[in-house]
From TrEMBL:
It comes from the Bacteria. SUPFAM superfamilies: HAD-like (SSF56784). One of its GO terms (molecular function) is protein tyrosine kinase activity. This is 5'-nucleotidase. GO terms for cellular component: cytosol.
Length: 219
């Protein structure tokens, strides 16, 4: 029996592109690193930032840490609220909340996720929020899902659905035996999401309640 839904934050509940991209640009400028094209900047949204700085900027672990610190200078001051809730999300969450427990599971630091949820009045829909540690020792989506399962006691993957917009959301769900819904209105491409093989696709937030109902299955 389906008991709960795990939601990604960036690209699933909110369009956070402006704040994240501006924060990355600030960090690159401060560290005098080469500029990145728009397509590459967009790839930073979702996965852990330390890994993205190493992957897309060719930085060492130590230099990526410095880039992350610079990123947070801008993000905590301005970027965190350069953000908006996707149309249709509040009504979809209100419907889903009637039948399931809802949780946020994000690779964004838990502190930031809570601030965003509070500011945009999303916290009312969620039982709890689980995110990365500030030092990103807990940051990958598979790790966040495991953390959320431990904290909630929802250890049986077949009772859960992960909703997200990037391959790491879907792959994390596979790691723990969860069904998954890939949302195509976020930051992941159709090719990326299809390759990850989610249980279902949603092209708009308004589709989520009916898709979740279709995924219900007995233990």
């Amino acid at each position: 029996m389906l008991q709960a839904l795990f939601f990604d934050l960036d690209g699933t509940l909110t369009d956070s592109q402006l704040g994240i991209v501006n924060s990355i640009k600030y960090s690159l400028n401060k560290l005098q690193l080469p500029e990145l094209d728009d397509a590459t900047l967009k790839l930073f949204i979702g996965p852990p930032l330390l890994a993205s700085y190493q992957k897309y900027c060719g930085l060492s672990a130590a230099d990526a840490q410095q880039a992350l610190l610079a990123y947070r200078e801008y993000y905590t001051d301005k970027g965190i609220l350069e953000n908006k809730v996707y149309a249709g999300i509040p009504s979809a969450l209100a419907q889903l909340q009637q039948n399931y427990r809802l949780y946020i599971t994000t690779s964004k630091p838990e502190l930031y996720a809570q601030q965003i949820s509070d500011h945009f009045a999303l916290s009312q829909y969620f039982t709890a929020i689980y995110g990365a540690s500030m030092d990103e020792t807990r940051a990958g989506k598979s790790e966040i899902i495991a953390y959320a399962q431990t904290e909630t006691g929802l250890v049986h993957g077949q009772n859960l659905v992960m909703v997200g917009d990037r391959e790491n959301d879907i792959n994390g769900a596979h790691d723990h035996g969860l069904q998954s819904i890939a949302v195509t209105y976020g930051f992941g491409s159709q090719d990326e999401l299809s390759a990850a093989v989610p249980s279902a696709f949603a092209t708009a937030p308004t589709e989520l309640p009916s898709i979740v109902k279709q995924l219900e299955r007995p233990l």
